[in-house]
Q: What sequence folds into this?
């Protein structure tokens, strides 16, 4: 039987590293591909060979089918693993592999094509006997036809892009009045994401569970399912936390859903690993949504409870091996939960973040699939997903607590991220009770997004600066010539969490006590004792007793910014060196004439024109970055003076997009 000898991995970062980890024990030589932006990435360093396939500022590098095939032929790879994302669900790529005589670690081109079109997938599923949600799909249907269909189905309805996945091109429509605008938004997002603006309609099931069944099928007609995963914790149809098994699924329901999934596998002559996704309503009825013809981001939780390596099984099946597993062989042990660690700021409507990785340390007591490294960089060109934190325990409550603890022990500084948000989800009593649906995050947003207090971190930063014997050019001249045996000559003026701070180190003694007054927050003096500081790489590890409580802190400096993260708190405090005057100028409610891009990205909509009157909250432009569309709004009432951008234009961070002038 032929085996795979050399494998090209047509993906990047943690996805590529996961495949590398599975391939090497099988004696398979590995080949990485990368864009110029990923030249120093870990997957490039760890593969046996690596090849550049495109320029840095382009997502398209990993989508160039011709270059991927050309590289595979050049290096002598006899197989390609597409990972998940990029070309993993492209029928054209699968066909190109067939024509080049290269084994694709995945299903056939026909199976991918059938499942990639949601209308076709639904038709096949219905013919195979799977329960489906009532809906409408007609090629070339216009706005009026779609509106009439929505009226017939009955509101609320879900608009869904026919191509692609990942929640893009999906909109929930509650009534007829908002249908046209939501349709336009969905089609625009689908066009940008998949170059296909066709949509279908489905009856919306409010607050269901999102349940998916993992399947494996070999080239000899044998298939098994590996149970379910619960992916109900979602934001904008994007999965955030996934677990296996589902707290809403018992053995009888699991058997019925698994049987339905295998019917679709046989109906499509499916080969490899795949996922059949369902919605489960509150009465126990389930409905087919779609099939993902690839490995899923959340496959690790299934691996944890079954003890199987799904990527190794993908490789073995692609090599023609028989799937020796029988359905009765599949057993489930304990409970596993995964949190998706993403470069996004929950406090700013989950705005994607970029920046240097100043410090990174994953909890060694849990599985963490990642490609982060201290000294690396998070760029704007790719998905915001950084790492997958996966825990396994004897029962669900223990797994919830273990995930929360693992996130608490995760150190990541240099940009904002969602680790604290994930930790709060894992600790939330409703989540721990297991009785929730896809509306969970919206229902409990106030508690999950509550602002964090950082007074201890601010005090640690002030004391650290005061103890530095020499100031650096980035920090205020107040530190120049400062002796470490007395207080700062004047307050250190900084900005943190959008507020101006005056950090006064009023008493400083190396042997005993440091006292820090944080003005601007109405706080009492913070007393710091038993200070020790050790430099570790580019960060400082600090131990101190703050107001009588022992604490550990990681601290990193980047230009004129300082990051401080306390022990067992996954969110770091960012403190910037700014004058009080400049901070006040940017305060809420102060008129700002220039609307600048908050990130690198592409303009997808320009919704205003010169001379137009706008109110606070009016959407000015839409910007696509890290696979998400972001609405840029006016902060105050104003008149549009100039529009500096156009649809399709690539924006850089802080580039001016719109110029306003005060109204009246």
A:
């Amino acid at each position: 039987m032929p085996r795979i000898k050399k494998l090209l991995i047509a993906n990047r970062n943690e996805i590529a590293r996961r495949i590398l980890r599975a391939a090497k024990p099988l004696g398979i030589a590995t080949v990485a591909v990368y864009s110029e932006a990923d030249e120093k990435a870990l997957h490039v360093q760890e593969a046996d060979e690596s090849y550049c396939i495109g320029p840095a500022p382009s997502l398209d590098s990993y989508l160039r089918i011709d270059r991927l095939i050309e590289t595979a032929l050049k290096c002598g790879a006899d197989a390609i693993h597409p990972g998940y994302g990029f070309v993993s669900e492209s029928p054209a790529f699968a066909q190109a592999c067939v024509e080049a005589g290269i084994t694709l670690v995945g299903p056939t081109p026909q199976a991918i094509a059938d499942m990639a079109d949601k209308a076709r997938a639904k038709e096949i599923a219905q013919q195979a006997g799977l329960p489906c949600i009532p809906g409408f799909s007609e090629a070339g249907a216009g706005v009026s036809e779609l509106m009439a269909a929505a009226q017939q189905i009955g509101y609320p309805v879900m608009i869904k892009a026919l191509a692609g996945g990942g929640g893009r091109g999906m909109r929930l429509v509650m009534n007829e009045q908002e249908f046209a605008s939501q349709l336009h938004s969905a089609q625009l997002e689908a066009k940008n994401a998949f170059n296909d603006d066709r949509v279908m309609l489905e009856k919306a099931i409010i607050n269901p569970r999102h349940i998916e069944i993992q399947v494996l099928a070999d080239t000899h007609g044998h298939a098994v399912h590996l149970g379910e995963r619960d992916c109900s914790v979602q934001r904008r149809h994007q999965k955030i936390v996934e677990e296996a098994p589902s707290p809403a699924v018992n053995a009888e329901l699991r058997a019925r859903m698994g049987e339905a999934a295998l019917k679709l596998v046989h109906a499509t002559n499916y080969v490899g690993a795949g996922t059949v996704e369902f919605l489960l309503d509150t009465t126990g009825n389930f409905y087919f949504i779609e099939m993902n013809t690839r490995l899923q981001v959340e496959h690790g939780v299934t691996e944890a409870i079954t003890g199987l390596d799904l990527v190794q099984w993908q490789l073995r099946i692609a090599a023609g091996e028989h799937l020796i597993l029988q359905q009765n062989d599949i057993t489930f042990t304990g409970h596993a939960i995964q949190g998706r660690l993403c470069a996004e700021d929950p406090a700013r409507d989950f705005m994607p973040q970029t920046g240097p990785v100043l410090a990174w340390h994953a909890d060694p007591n849990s599985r963490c699939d990642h490609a982060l490294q201290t000294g690396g960089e998070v760029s704007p060109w790719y998905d915001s997903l950084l790492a997958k934190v996966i825990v396994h325990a004897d029962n669900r409550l223990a797994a919830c607590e273990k995930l929360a603890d693992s996130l608490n022990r995760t150190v990541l500084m240099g940009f904002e991220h969602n680790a604290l948000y994930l930790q709060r989800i894992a600790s939330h009593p409703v989540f721990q009770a297991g009785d929730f649906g896809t509306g969970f995050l919206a229902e409990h947003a106030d508690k999950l997004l509550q602002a964090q207090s950082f007074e201890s971190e601010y005090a640690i930063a002030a004391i650290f600066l005061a103890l530095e014997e020499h100031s650096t050019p980035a920090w205020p001249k107040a530190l120049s010539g400062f002796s470490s045996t007395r207080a700062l000559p004047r307050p250190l003026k900084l900005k943190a969490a959008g507020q101006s701070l005056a950090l006064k180190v009023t008493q400083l003694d190396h042997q005993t006590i440091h006292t820090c007054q944080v003005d601007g927050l109405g706080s009492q003096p913070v007393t710091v004792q038993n200070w020790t500081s050790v430099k570790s790489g580019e960060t400082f590890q600090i131990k101190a007793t703050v107001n009588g409580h022992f604490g550990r802190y990681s601290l990193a400096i980047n230009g004129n910014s300082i990051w401080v993260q306390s022990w067992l708190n996954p969110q770091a405090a960012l403190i910037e060196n700014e004058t009080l005057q400049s901070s006040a100028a940017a305060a809420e409610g102060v008129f700002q004439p220039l609307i600048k891009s908050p990130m690198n990205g592409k303009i997808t909509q320009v919704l205003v024109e010169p001379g137009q009157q706008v109110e606070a909250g009016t959407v000015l432009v839409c910007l696509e970055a890290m696979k998400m569309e972001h609405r840029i709004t006016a902060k105050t009432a104003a008149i549009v003076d100039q529009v500096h951008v156009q649809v399709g234009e690539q924006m850089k961070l802080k580039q001016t997009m719109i110029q306003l002038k005060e109204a009246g």
In short: Confidence is low (pLDDT under 50) at residues 469-486, 579-589.
